[in-house]
């Protein structure tokens, strides 16, 4: 018993219904319909080249259409074979039954053929189709109004797409044709726009075996990916599982076509059979890829398996045996040990049993490209792509091809080699050695004009370094200068060179002593010598030069000649002069800054001593602490004050002027004295800060500051306080420390007119109130909230008296800003 064939309406094969001889036509418009379609009219070209291009494009479209039709016919022919086996009929009867069953089921023949093959095959494509069928089982059936895009994702369409792609891939001559079949039949309906098939090499390299949907330049740019280069395909190769990239620009490494699809998604799937991965399938979307569902994963894995079958039939994809891999590694080591440029070439592509090209597998570090390209631009490329002119008659490629075919080595001296440099052919001569090692070819190329090239490089280096060389024969008086030395002297090239003995006559008179010592050491003591001097040129320009020379002696110790070089050090000299002036100015500025810091420190310490005696007031103990910055240049504007006013109230305040140095110190003096004077009026703390804001805004030189002002009434034990952008006070009561509620108040000097809210707190016996500046708590690596929490923890630790509590706070402070610190503490003794 054979299982029933699928379809929207079941048709029995047990009693085939035979109709007349009329052939049932295949309904047009279905996916994979092999019917011929009339191409749109072509525009008439006006010129011969345009007409030729239009003809080529039209023929290419016909070839692609013929390939698609052939792929669809392949699926239908395979389904007819299944019917022949099951119905025991001939091919013509099987074709007639296929079309009748498709017409009864309301399906295209291609869709029904795919379902028949799925029942018979039960392979990976069948599994992918069944998963999709289960996913869409609850969807409503397509209506006549269903758009074509939705119909292409229906259950039957999925099976038809996958089977058509399978037929095209298996019938493809190479991986390139397989990639085009996969994109056209299986991936475009899923929204994909491009596909690449990578072949994995034995050294974990990746070669682009086939691609479709990319620009014309992309396959050539990504034809080979060396081992160790991170790409989406390598990620799937290493992890041996599908990898989904929602956006290659955000989360993935570069790959083929990433410039044309900067925000597109990618799916890379390892392709292999029998547990062996031989390549990678890479699918590209213009946006995010299809949702990663089990059904979608089954479809892409089925397509990857088709790629693996195609790669198995490609000679380049076959893994090299262990011995060949070892021989290749040994050949690479041999090339690296040579002192001449060497290439390791691997055969690439076979056409009728003949190698069509060679891939440059490796170049050693002695490699010098005539076109100036680096090693990375040549390694991995095909020989005819990197050096297209090598394919000329009796050219280098023909020699390499002959050595690979016969195994007979080739040697040649002064062989002309032509390369393209900026689309201009450049010919050089080189000694060539070509030998075959296993299936590989070793090409050794020694450029004959190496000395000329090095001489040119030396000349450019002398020009850039403003160096002129000379040689003076003391036996026959012959003097040789290079062109750069004539330029340094400011005389025309070809003029009579000057002798070393004439050098003092062209130098500044103040340099006679230095030049005399130079000439005596060189000519009389016969030692290498150097000197710096000022050259007076004929054009009136004075240049600072340095001359370095060494004597050349014969076997008897007699002086034969002198070789040396001049270097123009004028720029260096004037740079040194400018640096000396800058150093003098910097030293003067540092001295002025140190003096200003010393005056600021003296002023601050005179007004703000580190400790003060207790402020005597009935029923209240007041203590203060001041800790200056550790570095003198960081002297700041932190200040405090504690005084008994005429009305009996106690003034308590701390403040912090922005900045450091003498300006901050003088600003601190102005604000502190102004607040003490204003407090004598008997105004409240909010009014005092309003007046102090006017002083900071109008009567100082752009001083801004924060401040905390409090007035304590001993009669009621009430503290009224206000703040101007400052941290709130801390109250320690019953062994627990808390900050008082924050009140509104802008920092001093920021605005012309500001109002300041007041708050009050009634102190109880044994309460302690702390007022401080941010130098006690602030840290560069933490928030102010964390700093205040640590202050609360330290402040509530038990101590013997108020002075000990303030010292304890300074000792255990973990602030790291090296700023000034002021603390004012009051303590209400217990009754």
TrEMBL record:
Region of interest: Disordered: 1-48
Gene3D superfamilies: 2.10.70.100, 3.30.450.40, PAS domain, PPM-type phosphatase domain, Winged helix-like DNA-binding domain superfamily/Winged helix DNA-binding domain
Species per Swiss-Prot/TrEMBL record: Actinomadura rubrisoli
Biased composition (Pro residues): 25-44
Residue span, ANTAR domain: 56-117
Keywords on record: Hydrolase, Transcription, Transcription regulation
InterPro entries according to UniProt: ANTAR, Bact_Sigma-Reg, GAF, GAF-like_dom_sf, PAS, PAS-assoc_C, PAS-like_dom_sf, PAS_fold_3
Lineage: Bacteria, Bacillati, Actinomycetota, Actinomycetes, Streptosporangiales
PANTHER family linked to this entry: STAGE II SPORULATION PROTEIN E (PTHR43156:SF2), STAGE II SPORULATION PROTEIN E-RELATED (PTHR43156)
Name the UniProt record assigns to this protein: ANTAR domain-containing protein
Every PAC domain range: 529-581
Record GO terms (molecular function): phosphatase activity; RNA binding
């Amino acid at each position: 018993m054979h299982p029933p064939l699928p379809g929207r309406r079941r048709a029995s094969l047990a009693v085939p219904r035979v109709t007349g001889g009329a052939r049932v036509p295949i309904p047009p418009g279905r996916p994979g319909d092999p019917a011929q379609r009339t191409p749109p009219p072509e525009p008439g070209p006006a010129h011969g080249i345009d007409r030729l291009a239009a003809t080529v494009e039209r023929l290419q479209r016909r070839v692609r259409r013929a390939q698609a039709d052939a792929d669809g016919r392949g699926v239908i022919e395979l389904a007819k074979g299944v019917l022949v086996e099951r119905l025991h009929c001939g091919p013509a009867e099987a074709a007639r039954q296929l079309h009748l069953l498709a017409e009864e089921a309301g399906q295209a023949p291609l869709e029904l053929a795919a379902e028949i093959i799925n029942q018979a095959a039960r392979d990976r494509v069948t599994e992918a189709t069944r998963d999709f069928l289960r996913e869409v089982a609850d969807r409503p059936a397509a209506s006549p109004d269903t758009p074509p895009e939705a119909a292409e994702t229906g259950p039957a369409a999925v099976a038809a797409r996958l089977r058509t792609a399978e037929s095209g891939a298996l019938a493809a001559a190479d991986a390139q044709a397989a990639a085009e079949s996969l994109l056209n039949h299986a991936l475009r309906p899923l929204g994909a726009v491009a596909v690449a098939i990578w072949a994995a090499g034995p050294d974990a390299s990746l070669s682009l075996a086939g691609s479709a949907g990319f620009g014309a330049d992309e396959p050539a740019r990504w034809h080979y990916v060396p081992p160790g280069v991170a790409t989406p395909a390598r990620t799937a190769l290493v992890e041996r599982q599908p990898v989904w990239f929602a956006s290659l620009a955000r989360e993935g490494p570069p790959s083929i076509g990433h410039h044309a699809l900067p925000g597109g998604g990618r799916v890379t799937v390892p392709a292999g059979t029998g547990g062996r991965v031989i390549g990678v399938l890479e699918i590209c979307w213009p946006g995010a890829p299809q949702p990663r569902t089990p059904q979608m994963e089954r479809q892409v894995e089925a397509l990857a398996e088709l790629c693996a079958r195609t790669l198995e039939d490609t000679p380049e994809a076959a893994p090299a045996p262990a011995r060949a891999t070892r021989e290749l590694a040994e050949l690479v080591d041999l090339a690296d040990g040579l002192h001449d440029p060497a290439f390791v070439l691997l055969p690439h592509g076979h056409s009728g049993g003949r190698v069509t090209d060679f891939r440059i597998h490796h170049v050693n570090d002695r490699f010098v490209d005539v076109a100036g390209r680096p090693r990375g631009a040549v390694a991995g490329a095909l020989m005819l792509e990197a050096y297209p002119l090598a394919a000329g008659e009796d050219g280098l490629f023909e020699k390499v091809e002959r050595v690979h075919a016969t195994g007979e080595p080739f040697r040649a001296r002064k062989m002309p080699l032509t390369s393209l440099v900026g689309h201009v052919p450049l010919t050089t001569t080189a000694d060539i050695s070509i030998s075959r090692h296993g299936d590989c070819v070793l090409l050794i190329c020694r450029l004959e004009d190496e000395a000329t090239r090095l001489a040119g490089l030396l000349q450019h280096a002398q020009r850039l370094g403003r160096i002129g060389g000379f040689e003076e024969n003391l036996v026959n008086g012959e003097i040789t200068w290079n062109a750069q030395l004539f330029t340094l002297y400011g005389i025309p090239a070809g003029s009579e060179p000057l002798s070393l003995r004439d050098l003092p006559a062209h130098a500044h008179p103040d340099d006679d002593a230095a030049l005399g010592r130079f000439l005596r050491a060189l000519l009389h003591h016969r030692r290498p010598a150097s000197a710096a001097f000022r050259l007076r040129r004929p054009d009136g320009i004075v240049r600072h030069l340095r001359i370095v020379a060494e004597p050349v002696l014969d076997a008897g110790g007699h002086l034969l000649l002198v070789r040396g070089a001049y270097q123009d050090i004028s720029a260096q000299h004037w740079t040194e002069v400018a640096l000396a002036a800058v150093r003098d100015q910097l030293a003067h500025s540092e001295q002025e800054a140190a003096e200003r810091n010393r005056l600021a420190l003296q002023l601050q310490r005179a007004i703000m001593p580190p400790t003060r005696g207790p402020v005597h007031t009935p029923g209240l103990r007041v203590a203060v602490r001041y800790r200056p910055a550790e570095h003198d240049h960081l002297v700041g504007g932190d200040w405090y004050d504690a005084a008994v006013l005429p009305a009996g109230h106690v003034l308590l305040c701390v403040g912090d002027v922005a900045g450091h140095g003498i300006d901050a110190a003088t600003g601190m003096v102005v604000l502190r004295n102004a607040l003490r004077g204003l407090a004598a009026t008997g105004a409240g703390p909010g009014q005092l800060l309003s007046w102090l804001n006017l002083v900071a805004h109008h009567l100082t030189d752009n001083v801004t500051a924060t401040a905390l002002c409090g007035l304590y009434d001993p009669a009621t034990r009430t503290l009224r306080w206000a703040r101007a952008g400052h941290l709130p006070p801390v109250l320690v009561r019953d062994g627990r420390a808390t900050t008082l509620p924050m009140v509104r108040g802008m920092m001093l000097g920021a605005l012309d007119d500001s109002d300041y809210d007041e708050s009050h707190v009634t102190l109880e016996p044994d309460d302690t109130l702390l007022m401080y500046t941010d130098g006690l708590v602030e840290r560069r690596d933490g928030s102010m909230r964390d700093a205040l929490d640590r202050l609360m923890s330290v402040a509530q630790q038990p101590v013997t008296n108020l002075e000990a509590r303030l010292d304890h706070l300074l000792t255990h402070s973990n602030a790291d800003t090296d700023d000034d610190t002021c603390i004012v503490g009051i303590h209400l003794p217990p009754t």
